[in-house]
Amino acid sequence: MTVGTLDREAMKACRERIDNLTKPIYSLAQLEVIAERLAGIYKEPKPHDLRYGVILFCADHVGPTSDMAHSLQRVTRFHEGRTATQGGASKLKAPVYVVDVGLGCDTSDLSTIATMPVVKEPRSGEKALSKQECQEAIAIGVSWAKRLHEEGIEAVALGHIGEGAYLQALLVTAKVTGVAVDTLLAAYHKKLEIDNDSTYRDTSVMNETADTIDDIVRLAGADIAALVGFVLGAAACRMAIVFDNAITGAAVVAATAIEPNVIEYVFPSAAYDDAVHQEQMKYLQMKPYLYYDVSIDEGLGATMGLSILDASMHMLNDMKTFVEANVAAAEDGPGNERQENPDNYKKGKA
């Protein structure tokens, strides 16, 4: 897969329009930056009417907090269409896709859930994926990126369902960013007021060596590996990708380590009071746009992040320029020589 760079000419033309909208120059901050980046992604100075989508990859991990019956309840709510994520997605007319790549429960009777298990049973001791399993999980993610692209989806929110994935997200983040695993574990345990972390240290995946990015992704488990594949595939298809918490963030961090150009296509949604997520933001040099103080994952934060992309598109397309509105811009303001006045525009056309 080849992930192309952004179209700088489209971005330049988009920025020129943004600077000429009837507002103080640079006053809409990140909405302006988002619109400019979307122009570069789609090679279109004025992208509009984007089609949005949401995808969740699901897997359970055996560990001290695992409750696979809970995973079945969560997936069933998606099957029945009664989740907060689906409610938010419906406002954007965004279809929601749920892909089971390794849940400990049987989802074959849930017709709206795509059952594609890479790991047939949750692993005792959190063993790393085999090379073949890792490749299969990544390939599943890539295939879903291509499918959504073929269906016309242009911007997609990432999500996850399953128990016990946080440890894998922590490990992937530490391995890629270089932050000590013990540092992240200590912060996590302090937050949860856990005194004895031996159960976390006993998992065999903690003792796995990971000298290459391929080894690191094998440590991630089927869900994060599939998310990595999806991010790579979506970026190669020039789709905008919105992520939220530490688990989807781990996939983005790993994908950017594999293909640096991926960074141009990803957008952070929500901020979390979580050391792993915060280290991911430092590594990616990003700041999330929103803060909800929610604990629900299931792609809710990323889905709400799509609304920020949508707001930037409304800014770009629904606001008028000074020329279109026949309004004079201040010639001695900060937008001087950037903002075109109606009279000057008419003289230039004369």
Structure, explained:
The chain is α/β, with parallel strands linked by helices and 350 residues long. The protein folds into 2 domains: 8-47 and 320-346, no CATH class; 52-306, 3-Layer(aba) Sandwich (Rossmann fold). Helix content is 49%, strand content 10%. It contains 15 helices and 8 strands. It has helices spanning 8-19, 29-42, 68-79, 84-91, 131-150, 166-177, 181-192, 198-201, 213-220, 222-236, 246-258, 275-284, 300-318, 322-325, 342-349; strands spanning 52-59, 96-102, 113-115, 155-161, 240-243, 266-268, 270-271, 290-291. The strands form 2 sheets. Strands 3-2-1-4-5-6 form a 6-stranded parallel beta sheet, sandwiched between helices. Helix 11 links the parallel strand 5 (240-243) and strand 6 (266-268). Helix 6 (166-177) packs antiparallel against helix 9 (213-220) and helix 6 packs parallel to helix 12 (275-284). It is elongated, with a radius of gyration of 22 Å. Residues 194-202 have low confidence and may be disordered. Pfam families: DBI_PRT (PF02277). Keywords: Cobalamin biosynthesis, Glycosyltransferase, Transferase. InterPro entries: Nict_dMeBzImd_PRibTrfase (IPR003200), Nict_dMeBzImd_PRibTrfase_N (IPR023195), Nict_dMeBzImd_PRibTrfase_sf (IPR036087). Residues 335-350 have a biased composition (Basic and acidic residues). Belongs to the CobT family.
